[in-house]
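R.M. (postdoc): so does anyone remember the format we settled on? I'll just put the structure tokens first.
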């Protein structure tokens, strides 16, 4: 058997959908597992809706999640002449015919099918009429001469044997009356010319596969193996569409989901290996197989994605986590000044506490990132006259402390609690607001230690709070 070659073939008519990402990932992993090649084909024949910006976004999204294709992108629109040539060969060898039905005739057939509540199948009117009877004023389409009798069996590597009555497959159009090829012709010719050995795609393509197999057989081409993956559904069990929130990679990247976590989640969405949950990239490649793909649709669960991301945030090397945070902030929030690294990096141990996303870490770290504290009126109300006295006393007492550690700061706080007959909140809350601008956020000692003595003094001297 020839070396394994797979492909992912998106249309650049919008942002890359999460279902497409999983399909690309499964193709890529299958190829890498078999030491084969993975190719990207851009199906851009819809000239009105295809945009370069969508193509660039698709390539960037795949690269972001770690799926990179071999060789150059294969651009479908540059191969249209090849597709048309095959349509004419099929015409010559009797496997296709010209159809002169007008659009009104087709519409009438569709209307009748609707009335009878039957799926529309073209009535094959021109299948056996000789060309000599063709009207001169109508530009024909070219239709493939599908099998009429018997059944066809697809030996699907995921679904098992799938059988279909040949009579349910219409004589589908392969070349429109303007000379442009249709999807089923273009995809088949491209897959043949690209030397694809395995076609792994969503199971909404099953009917297309039956049509494409007939083209392969009519052209005497080697058949690739086919595998159809069940679709991804929403948590409510509906088919996930591009209109759903969190359906594109950008939706996840924006809230600070890390590529490794999302890749691991998508790998496990409809595929399993024993009871293993977390996979390194190397393990994913080594262990991936088509046998592990389930036959039922998978439900996209945001809480599981966040849980997976939290696992990666906790277990990733902190230098790597810091770099990811910097890149995330630069792309979606603000540039972090390089001098802040010395304070943020050692603080990641508590900044990442309970954080499910990079956005959570950013929100926890704002008090370090920003030199100027932004107070809102509600939080400022917490700094009443008693709170101002506590802040002043705290500021004076820490002057004598050389090293800021919990052991050196805790006695000061306890003393203030006792002398003001209050509790930890009574001391901690005004100090937290004075130092960060918010009553919410990391623990008080973590805030003080991460800012350092000089910055704490500066913030507690603010004209707003004294």
């Amino acid at each position: 058997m020839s070396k394994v070659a797979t492909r992912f073939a998106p249309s650049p008519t919008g942002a890359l959908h999460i279902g497409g990402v999983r399909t690309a990932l499964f193709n890529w992993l299958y190829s890498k597992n078999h030491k084969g090649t993975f190719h990207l084909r851009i199906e851009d024949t819809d000239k009105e809706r295809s945009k370069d910006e969508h193509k660039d976004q698709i390539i960037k999204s795949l690269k972001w999640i770690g799926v990179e294709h071999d060789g150059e992108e294969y651009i479908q629109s540059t191969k249209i002449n090849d597709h048309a040539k095959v349509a004419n060969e099929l015409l010559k060898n009797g496997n296709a015919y010209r159809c002169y039905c007008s659009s009104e005739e087709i519409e009438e057939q569709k209307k009748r099918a609707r009335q009878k509540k039957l799926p529309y199948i073209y009535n094959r009117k021109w299948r056996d009429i000789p060309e000599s009877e063709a009207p001169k004023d109508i530009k024909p389409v070219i239709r493939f001469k599908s099998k009429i009798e018997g059944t066809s069996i697809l030996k699907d590597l995921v679904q098992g044997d799938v059988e279909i009555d040949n009579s349910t497959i219409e004589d589908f159009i392969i070349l429109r009356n303007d000379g442009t090829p249709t999807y089923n012709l273009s995809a088949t010719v491209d897959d043949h010319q690209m030397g694809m050995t395995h076609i792994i795609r969503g199971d909404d393509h099953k009917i297309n596969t039956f049509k494409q197999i007939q083209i392969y057989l009519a052209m005497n081409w080697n058949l690739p193996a086919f595998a159809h993956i069940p679709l991804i559904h929403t948590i409510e069990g509906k088919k996930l569409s591009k209109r759903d929130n969190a359906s594109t990679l950008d939706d996840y990247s924006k809230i600070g989901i890390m590529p490794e976590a999302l890749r691991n989640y998508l790998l496990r969405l409809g595929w399993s290996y024993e009871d293993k949950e977390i996979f390194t990239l190397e393990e994913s490649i080594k262990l991936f197989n088509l046998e592990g793909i389930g036959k039922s649709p998978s439900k996209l669960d945001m809480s599981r994605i966040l849980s997976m991301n939290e696992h990666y945030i906790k277990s990733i090397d902190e230098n790597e986590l810091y770099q990811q945070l910097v890149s995330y902030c630069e792309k979606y929030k603000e540039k972090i000044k390089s001098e802040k690294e010395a304070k943020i990096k050692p603080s990641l141990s508590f900044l990442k506490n309970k954080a499910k996303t990079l956005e959570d870490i950013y929100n926890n770290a704002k008090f370090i990132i920003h030199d100027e504290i932004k107070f809102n009126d509600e939080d400022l109300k917490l700094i009443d006259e008693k709170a101002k006295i506590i802040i002043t006393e705290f500021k004076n007492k820490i002057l004598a402390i050389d090293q800021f550690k919990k052991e050196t700061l805790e006695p000061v706080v306890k003393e203030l609690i006792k002398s003001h007959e209050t509790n930890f909140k009574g001391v901690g809350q005004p100090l937290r607001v004075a130092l960060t601008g918010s009553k919410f956020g990391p623990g008080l000692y973590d805030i003080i230690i991460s800012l350092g003595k000089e910055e704490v003094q500066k913030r507690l001297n603010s004209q707003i709070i004294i």
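R.M.: ...and that's the designed sequence above, right after the tokens. Also worth knowing: The mean pLDDT is 94. Residues 18 and 247 are 5 Å apart (CA to CA).
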